[in-house]
Amino acid sequence: MTMSNIRGMRGFLASSIGVTCAAALMLPLTPSAVAANTRPAPTAEAATTAGDRPAPGHTESLPLEPLNRTRATPAAPEQGLPPKDVRRFSLIGVVWDNPDTELHGRVQVRTRATATGAWSDWQDVETHNADHAADPYTAERASGRVRGATAPLWVGDSDGVEVRVKAEPSETAALPTLPTGLRLELVDPGEEAPQPRPVTSRADAPANNLTADTAAASAVNAELAPLGALEIPALTAEQTRSELLTVGGADLTAEQQARPYIGPRPRIVTRRGWGANESWRERKFVYTKKVKAAFVHHTASGNGYTCSQAPSVIRGIYRYHVMSMGWRDIGYNFVVDKCGNLYEGRAGGVAKPVLGAHTLGFNTHSMGIALLGSHATSKPSAAAVKAVARLTAWKLGLFGANPRGKTYLKSGGSNLYAKGRNVRLNVISGHRDGYATECPGWQMYRKLGSTRSKAAELQGR
């Protein structure tokens, strides 16, 4: 791939990976070029043990039942399931037929721990998840496979479940109603596969049991790490600036050559590092032209995980996004755990402008960074907040964006801004700045000012 393939990208982003995996690495320049040659949506049992793929997980999908059918005059529709033995799972969510229908109501679950047999207290599941989605009118949104869904909730290793969903009044409905086709999704993310040694060349890939899809997902990071690498190593500020000047110096202005504003590259765990099964996603990578802004999110999946479990939580969310919700890949471009570890999200290359499905209406020319957890009332860890600053200082610096600055993005249509409107936003924004939502939670949102300052400082501004 040459610089002419991706207009507006800095020179160092050009890649030399086009000699192999050609079908998997055809890179469309704009979101509109994505429709052709995509993989059919996988079934819930699509994961199989092969090569370096993770050991198979599964998704058990259970239709919800009316809970108040015997009441003469129920106050509001209620659906759910009584206590039930199920296959082992660790992540839970509720989906329904129409992605444009919002669930106005309360979703609560109780789960039984596999290790102890004890039932948890009732836990609330975040219902407003429509705002984490592909933009309207894109091929991903119009695929016919997308469903409405709650946020996923991480509950740990469990083998029993009880759920209740109760409708509540809304501004758009005279009587409380529930969406049609409500189903409970119980996700087992599968075990992380043993990782063979890092690969140094494509010829080495078969010996390390890399599938074509895994090799393709790794090859787009080839300028940053060896093929098959489990992580992209951190660089010092000087090394990062040197890399930028060496590879892309001819495309930089005199001022940028004298003092490029870019933060040191942070360590990033690759998709292979967290155990992504690359057979689940669609094959092609989809790009926007540039990255002008970063939207910060939380996954609303709960804080009850350990950092050693973070790869499992990410695999669970990935499976939920693709298998249960019908997306082409995990929606976020990056994920950050409570220990400050950074993870590659949607496939396509961490240094490239990969089109995500994270901020409805504003996915073009932006990236989505999700803190793994819930931060409406719980403060994010200092390590996670620092990781967001490090990531934005580097990635925004690749595209010349000032973390303290503002930029304009054209809305693709959200509940705050009509389609086509040019909206002035902070270069580092919270999800709620583009869509009326609680995300990324007030406790994280209030940290964005200091995050902008730290990211700018890391860029040398």
UniProtKB/TrEMBL annotation:
UniProt-annotated stretches for the region Disordered: 38-83
Superkingdom assignment: Bacteria
InterPro entries, alphabetized: Amidase/PGRP_sf (IPR036505), Amidase_domain (IPR002502), PGRP (IPR015510), PGRP_domain_met/bac (IPR006619)
GO molecular function: N-acetylmuramoyl-L-alanine amidase activity; zinc ion binding
Keyword terms: Signal
Leader sequence segment: 1-35
Pfam families: Amidase_2
GO biological-process terms attached to the record: peptidoglycan catabolic process
Domain Peptidoglycan recognition protein family: 266-414
Keyword Signal among record annotations: yes
Domain N-acetylmuramoyl-L-alanine amidase: 280-441
Biased composition (Low complexity): 38-50
Family from the record: Belongs to the N-acetylmuramoyl-L-alanine amidase 2 family.
The name this protein goes by in its record: Secreted protein
Species this protein is from: Streptomyces davaonensis (strain DSM 101723 / JCM 4913 / KCC S-0913 / 768)
